[in-house]
Amino acid sequence: MISYRPLWESMEKKGISQYHLLKSGIDNRTLNSLKKNRNITLITMERLCGIIGCTPNEVVEFISPEE
User: Tens digits of per-residue pLDDT, 9-51?
Assistant: First the structure.
């Protein structure tokens, strides 16, 4: 399972809002996918990292399902 919790934490630390992402080319549909921990493309990941100034590890984490 994937989680974008690191993204929201990175944005908070750097003072970047969702509005800034929208103005930087991330659309509402993508923001909705991020909020619901849905898949995004690597192009979107690259764009997010460029906007925020971070690495993919600061955007997404992989969580093992509970057994």
Answer: 999 999 999 999 999 999 999 999 999 999 999 999 999 999 9
Domain annotation for the chain: domains and CATH numbers? 2-62 (1.10.260)
pLDDT at 67 (0 to 100): 53
Tell me the C-alpha distance between 29 and 34, whole Å.
Answer: 9
Q: What's the rounded Cα separation, in Å, for the pair 16 and 9?
A: 10
Residues in the chain: 67
- Distances in Å between the alpha carbon of 13 and those of 8, 16, 52? 9, 8, 10
- Please state the pTM of the whole predicted model: 0.87
